[in-house]
Amino acid sequence: MKIEVCYTPQAYKLFHNPNAIVVVIDILRATSAITTAFYNGVTKMIPVATVEEAQEYKANGFMVAAERNGEMVKGFDLGNSPFGYMNAKVKGKTIAITTTNGTQAIEAAKGASKIIIGSFLNMDTVIDYLKKEKKDVLFLCAGWKNKFNLEDTLFAGAIAGELIVKSGFETQCDSTLAAMHLYTLAKHDLYKFLANSSHRNRLAKLDLDRDIKYCLTPNQCPVLPIMKGKFLVKL
Amino acid sequence: MKIEVCYTPQAYKLFHNPNAIVVVIDILRATSAITTAFYNGVTKMIPVATVEEAQEYKANGFMVAAERNGEMVKGFDLGNSPFGYMNAKVKGKTIAITTTNGTQAIEAAKGASKIIIGSFLNMDTVIDYLKKEKKDVLFLCAGWKNKFNLEDTLFAGAIAGELIVKSGFETQCDSTLAAMHLYTLAKHDLYKFLANSSHRNRLAKLDLDRDIKYCLTPNQCPVLPIMKGKFLVKL
Q: Are B113 and B20 in contact (CB under 8 A)?
């Protein structure tokens, strides 16, 4: 049971492993929003790569979430703030979603045998699932426009450390080792550790500090979103 | 004066900055070997991407170095062990060189306005040069077949930290922050920190532990290799 961490969707092809469970990570904020959505009763989500595809779903009567560069795209129902999904109006709904990075990562991993959604919000649920499945694990960080980011890496490092230290997983992958080292430095105060990080600053400018604090608080939404065909559903 | 770190040649295009000095890094072992070569009197080097191009230079009477997967390619004069260049026979020579990762990184950065070669062996020389030039700096890690590696990242973090803390450079780049954090953890014993790293293990299997220790020992070769047209020369 080997673990690898892929820092960007661009690099996914180099890491593709047909036996691995792919954990897609976009802490700020797509996978945190998706986790929150299922916890609040959303039935299905349809991740799509482009705003054009999202518009088609909208035209066909779906509830649709669209975010680019941290902001909700005009004319859609939701962005990728988790708080948008803490609302009775989403309950029982199927929601199409496109985001700057998170849904691009899901798209990149399309050939994987199994794709699950990871965030600090469902951290222990992800760990329990991976321990039970006993398969190779590939963490796919969404990053920011195919550049490395810290928050996704920290989450990968948190889970990798737990699996390696306590459950017999192993790694020969430097990006996994780096993620684990970084999490060791960050774990006592993730918010403070990310003070100078690029995306925390990007979101702070958009007055989204509340989102950041929420997304970094573990285990508020114990659900596991998983891809089934073109849909995300709750396991 | 901003600093960015690009972890792999694959990602270079996302980081390309026409104003930046690009520092190419392949600690184990291409840029360490190149630094050692110039320190030992090599006049010029010609980095080439493929073994085929290297063969052409060989056919035309050049001394040629070729390495793939850690080993010297048969039929060539040198590999990328720095110890191969500590030899009177290289003095005054022009040497063509192709390696698994390092020369691919140089190739990727071809459009840069200035490319220099960095390694722990010429660390302070690189720092002095960047402080004097006062330009943006882009560290380009060679990695391993377009995957992240630890040793190149540590070197980038070492220099970035020095420039940011002492010389007014700045960064808004998460990969730079991560590199600096990792160097902070590693700096007291680089060799030990890399104990589980992928390439240290790859080279240990080839009985190259002596190379690793040499490549991690700072400031043994105070020279600065720099690209001029298709040649590397000593500044």
A: yes
Contact A29, A211 (CB under 8 A): yes
Look up residue A102 and give its two tokens: 């998170």
Our CA-based measurement puts residue A22 at a distance from the nearest CA of chain B, in whole angstroms, of 17
Q: What is the pTM for the complete model shown? A: 0.95
Q: How far is B101 from chain A (nearest CA, A)?
A: 15
A177·B149 Cβ contact <8 A: no
Band the pLDDT of B62: cuts 50, 70, 90.
very high
The CATH fold of domain B3-234: putative 2-phosphosulfolactate phosphatase (3.90.1560)
CATH of the domain spanning A3-229:
3.90.1560.10
ipTM of the prediction: 0.95
Chain B positions touching A172 (Cβ under 8 A) are 198, 201
Nearest to B175 among A148, A172, A174 (CB): A148
Q: Residue B135 burial by CB count (10 A; 0-12/13-18/19+): exposed, middle or buried?
A: middle
